[in-house]
């Protein structure tokens, strides 16, 4: 494995290269002495989520939480992360069973991006992760970019197409003072897969609930 070549590509030099090997090792690999990337992926997913949330919070100070969530979903989803992996030619460095062509395997590619973030975090700190994410993943994001279509619209289309009915929203609770209320809303499909969302208005709470349900359904 050309580790030095890969480190130059991602512009990060590992102190402990065994972490990099682990981040690039699939469970099907014949390298039995090396653990696979799944634990690092679990950690990297959480680190990526925090850094993306912070990034969009600062980049778009005027937008509400529902819109921030749409931006987050646009850049945290499998398709986008797989595209980032393709830009970095990560498939050339993944250790897996012979004969596998991973260039278009979005699931594995996105997982390895997250495992790489987890490896950088363990090897150094969150600042190095932030630098990698901003330069190698978010380098094309600007204030002129737009989020995905609103989650409520996407969920509605899904329900009509697949279930022939609309999603059901219900207000569960309203708390806080009148000038700063917090609404809790549920959304469900066929009374199954219920997800909750909270926001400063019913609309925002519904957007967040719809987004959570879409994420659960891997949409």
Quick gist of this model?
With 219 residues, this protein is mainly alpha-helical. Helix content is 53%, strand content 11%.
Task: Walk me through what this model shows.
- 53% of the residues lie in helices and 11% in strands.
- A three-stranded antiparallel β-sheet has the order 1-2-3.
- It is mainly α and 219 residues long.
- A hairpin with a 6-residue loop joins strand 1 and strand 2.
Going by CATH, the architecture of the largest domain would be Orthogonal Bundle
Structural class, by secondary structure, is: mainly alpha
The CATH topology of the largest domain turns out to be Ribonuclease iii, N-terminal Endonuclease Domain, Chain A
Instruction: Profile the largest sheet.
Output: 3 strands, antiparallel
Strand order of the largest sheet: 1-2-3
Percent of sequence in beta strands: 5-15%
CATH class of the largest domain: Mainly Alpha
What number of structural domains do the residues give?
2
Give the tally of β-strands: 3
Question: CATH homologous superfamily of the largest domain?
Answer: Ribonuclease III domain
The helix/strand series, from N terminus to C terminus, equals: HHHHHHHHEEEH
Mean pLDDT across every amino acid position: 85
How much helicity do the residues have? 40-55%
Coarse morphology: elongated
